[in-house]
Every structure is written in C-alpha cells, then in structure tokens.
Amino acid sequence: MNMKKMWVFVAVFVLAAALFAGCDKKEDGGSAGVPLGDGGASARAEGDGAAGGDAFGSLDAQADPVTVTRTALGMEVKLTAHPIQSDGTQAALVVDYELTSDLPEGVRSLALYHFLSVDEVTEYGPASIRLFDLPSQTAWIELPQESNQYQDAGAFRVMPDKDGKPGYTASSVLSPDRPFASSVTLYAAPEGLDTVDVFLPVFGVIPDVPIVNADGGLGPFTELTGAPAAGSEAACTVTLRRFLADYEGEMFVVDEGEEATLTITSDVLFATDEYELTAEAQEVIARAVEQIKAEYDSGTVKVVGHTDDVADDAYNQTLSEKRAESVRAELAPLLGSGYTLTAEGRGETEPLAEGTSAEARAVNRRVDIVMSGVKHEDKAEAFQAGDLLPADYPTGQGGADWLEYRQAGEDTNVGTTVFKVRVENLVRTENGLVGYLRIGLAEDGTLPGLTKALYMVYADRATSRDLAARGYVLMQNMIGTFPVALLTAEGRLYGYDYVATDAGTGENYVNMVCNSGTGFGPTYGDLHEGVLVPMIWPDPGTDTVTIDVDGVFRIENVPVSDDASLLAAAY
Q1: Using an 8 Å Cβ cutoff, are 99 and 525 in contact?
Q2: Where in the chain are the domains?
Q3: DSSP-assigned letter for residue 49
Q4: ∠ CA 520-525-529 to the nearest 5 degrees?
Q5: How far apart are CA 471 and CA 342, in angstroms?
Q6: What sign does the CA torsion over 139, 187, 110, 448 have?
Q7: Minimal CA–CA distance to 74: which of 441, 484, 436?
Q8: For every residue of 406-433, which 3-state class applies, written as one string?
Q9: Which candidate, 97, 121, 117, places its Cα nearest to that of 109?
Q10: What 3 state SS string does 267-319 have?
Q11: According to DSSP H, which parts of 160-271 are helical?
C-alpha cells in the first residue's frame, strides 16, 4: 500500500484514541508559536528576534497578505496568508494563525494538527494545505522531502527553545497564553499566475494570495521544512478532476481539463465473454449520446474497451477491441456529423479499482468514451432532485436552518449520536463553487466527537459504488468530505479531486482538493456550534443546488451567490 493512502489508516487509529482522551495534547511547552510574518511587536515581545519574519526578510514587501477570520468549534482564528515566495521552480507559503476569541468552557487550546496535519506520530506537519486555481483546473500539493520521501516539506512554527533558537515541529496548538502559530509549506511554483487560492481543512479558502519573486531564494524556508525531493514538482502539480455519476450506476463522466471520459460498465452492455450489444445496451448508449451532446457541440470521440483480469492477456485484449468496436458502431449514427469516432482495446492493463473482488472486477469491466472538442456552454436548467430521486433520509430546504440527522440506525454505535448540518454560503467562482457547510452535534451521545459525522458510506448506498469507481480506498470512505455531492439533472456531481503519483512507490492515488485532513476529530470545543466543512465543487451552472450524502442527509434549493467577495468573508 502506498504511503499517501496509508495516512488514512493511521489517522483513524489516532482519532480513535483522541475520542476517548477528550482533551488536547501538548498543552505546555513547545507547541504554540509566534507569527512568521514581518517580525512585528508581538513577535519581538516573545523574544523571537531574527527567528521571526526577519529570517526571511519582509514577506509582505512586494504584495499585501490576505487575511480571513474563521470559527471552528466556537473558537475564532484569524488566518493570514503571506505572499507566496517563488523562485520559478518551487514556492513557499507561510500562513499565520491567531486565536482571537475566548475558548469554550473547559477547553485549554485549539490543536491545529487536528485539522492541518495527518497526525503527530508520523510527523507529517501541515500536510493538508493545498494551492489551487479553478480557471486553469490545477492544484498544487506539498512537495515531499528529499531526506524522507514519505514526509512532506512543511512545518509548524513553535516557540524558541531555551537557547533562543526557533523551533519547528509536526504539531502546534493555539491557547490564550500562546495565541500565535505559523506554518511553512513548499510547492511546485505555479507558472503564469499572479495569484492562487489556498485551501485549509476546516478553515476553508483564502482567496487570491499573491505570488511574488523570492528575492533571497528559498533557502531560509527549506532549512525549516527540509529540502524537497529533486524533480518532484511535476508529480505535485495535478489536474483537477470533475466526476459525475449517473443515478442508475451504469455510467459516469470524468472531466480533466481538455478532455472528458464517459465510462459505461460493461455488465450493462454485454453478456459475459460476449461483444454483441444486449437489448438493454441501446437505452444506455442513447443516454450516453445525450451526455456527449450536452458536453460537446463537436469533436473527437475515442471508444476504449477494458476487461477485468479473468482469462489470459491475449483473450482480454481481443475481447476489449471487439467490444469497443461494437459501441463505436452504435454511437456513430446516433451522434451524426460533427464527431470523429475511433475504437481501440486496452484489455486488462488499466484497471480502475484495485484487487480481485467481484466489486473491483465489475468496475474494471467497462467501455470508456473519451471526448474532446468544442464544449457546449448553455446555462443548465434548475433541477428538483426530489422529483426524480425521492430521499428516505432527512431533507431540508435552503440550508440556512440546522438539519438534524443520524449516520445510521439507532441500533448502531454511529447512530446513537444525532448530528446537525447547515449551509453557511455557496459562492460561484470561475469554473467552480466554493461552499461552506457547518456540522455539529444536535445532542450528546455515546460518541461525543464529530469524527463520524460523515463517517461511513454504507455498501447498499450509491455513494459507496461511486467512491469505488472514483478510485478511493475503503478507509477514505469512512472519514472526510469524499461522499458529499451535488445532485444534478445528469447525476451526482462530487467535489473536485485529482489523481497524483506517490513519490515513494510510483503508484497513483486519488484525493480531494477539499480533503478534511484527519476528519473532524476533536472531542473538545463547542461541538454544538460545530466545525466548518469547506467544499470545492465543479459549477453545475444552476442558480440553486441540492447538497446530498446518500442515505445521510439532503439539503435542497441552496442558493448560489455570484458575489466573489464572500470567499474572504468571516465564517
């Protein structure tokens, strides 16, 4: 198993321990910091001297920093993203965190590592901060360290040690005595851009952070974070993926920039070991044609056949070629002029799902229809999800009011806790929507934390099927924002994600831009006030949307704002 996936397993065990601990770690000594910004009065008052902003020069000399205020678990934090320092190959981001409110009764600190790290044990540091640019459909993930390919190049800033030297660690907390901390993270340098957006789990999006030239180079940053692995920049610059799954579970669309792939499961097209289309296949292909025409006015259409790993390579290669040709022949007259069609087979060489289970093999038996060309730009019509897909679980309207829900039946340990959710805002930006949910506890239960608020996608629900098709592993189904979708006329539209390559193993893995770090884990703070859960979706083009976690909750008719200034609002 590659290490980028392994963090999910580790995080679950760490969070399980935290749930029973009921309090924060490292309350004293070396876990809170001072701003790395410009070494102002607060930094000098702590005796930091040259260890603060002066270590880098003035971060804000060429452009202004961007500051937002966010509230999590009843604790208000001011976040300042300083201009990103770029040497043309790599870039350094410094974010300051300042506790600006009193703490809830009985709470001693706010642990940043609960949200921004993987965990303390493996010392990944602030490993969940992303840079992204929706217009170019690109995201930048942290570079791995040269000395440790399983650790990212990032660190939290902590108080100087007894000798006055600056300290950096994998974790950091904010408290009334030490209300400041900072993080430093390294990325591939975004090319051709003046600004990018920054995503932080729980705290959300800091928009339009400037990119400036690193006058003194990045040496002072890499001394703190560890030197990044040489040549890792390309693997850590990823294309955002739009994933749309139809409600019948028969096909889905993956859009990655210039190209989109519509996938149809072979089991609805062909009988076992056959390449002649079934009678039922005609209806599915007709829906595929509608989808292609909805996406593209004209262009090229490449039909690619895939099989599972049963039978030998030569047999599967031939079968995949014949199946692709059957679909191409059916598509051609339905699409008409304006589209150029080709067909080819890949056999068993490109599986989507790992393993040899029946479910994995069913996902891997498929026909891909790869599309490129002139996109269709008409505005989408409003969609009433309940008319097509009635919900047998809690459903609200508009999102302004709390909606209470259980994760499962009352006879399970997950179901003993009643959670609640509301929508803080949903903002349209170029090529995407940035949304803020707030999730909290409606009442006390046997599981007093929020870790399991979106904990498990059950096997009999559509979301579990879709997660497998998207390439997520089992434990990723258990925590975080992976199952939250928008319901559209064509199907379930999930948050932007990406496929990246693990630096240590060379294996591909899937993750979301708006991943949740270690989930919503804390067992302290104002759990009824809740935690902020940011989402970044593709734009379905409608004035209202329906937010849905299949089998858990649904919020219909959520208004979409076109006011981009709301991205920097206080939440």
Answers
A1: no
A2: 29-235, 248-375, 385-568
A3: G
A4: 80
A5: 26
A6: positive
A7: 441
A8: ECCCCCCCCCCCEEEEEEEEEEEECCEE
A9: 97
A10: HHCCCCCCCCCCCCHHHHHHHHHHHHHHHEEEEEEEEEEECCCCCCHHHHHHH
A11: 219-225
User: Could you tell me if 254 and 466 are in contact, meaning their C-beta atoms sit under 8 angstroms apart?
Assistant: no
Question: What residues have CB less than 8 Å from 68, skipping those under 6 apart?
Answer: 78, 79, 203, 204, 206, 568, 569, 570
Q: Using CA atoms, how far apart are residues 70 and 79, in angstroms rounded to an integer?
A: 8
The whole-angstrom separation of Cα 239 and Cα 415 is: 37
Concatenate the DSSP letters of all residues of 443-501 into one string: S--SS-SSTTTT----TTSHHHHHHHHHT--GGGGTSSSTT-EEE-SSSEEEPPEEEEE
Task: Please give the CATH topology (third level) of the domain spanning 248-375.
Answer: 60s Ribosomal Protein L30; Chain: A; (3.30.1330)
Q: CA nearest 532: which of 391, 438, 415, 414?
A: 438
> In a structure prediction context, what are the per-residue pLDDT tens digits for the chain, which is 571 residues long?
333 434 443 344 344 434 333 344 333 333 333 455 544 333 333 333 323 344 566 899 999 999 999 998 999 999 999 999 999 999 999 999 999 999 998 899 988 888 887 544 444 578 889 999 999 999 999 998 887 766 788 877 654 555 555 455 545 788 898 888 889 999 999 999 999 999 999 999 999 999 999 988 999 898 888 889 888 999 999 999 999 998 888 888 888 877 889 999 999 999 999 999 998 898 899 989 988 887 788 899 999 999 999 999 999 999 999 999 999 999 999 998 889 999 999 999 998 877 788 878 888 999 999 998 877 666 566 667 777 788 989 999 999 999 999 876 655 666 678 899 999 999 999 989 999 999 999 987 666 678 788 876 666 788 888 888 888 876 655 678 888 999 998 899 999 999 998 776 778 888 999 876 556 767 788 889 999 999 999 999 999 999 999 988 999 999 999 999 999 999 9
Report yes or no: 187 and 131 within 8 Å, Cβ to Cβ.
Answer: yes
Tell me the two tokens of residue 540: 């379905």
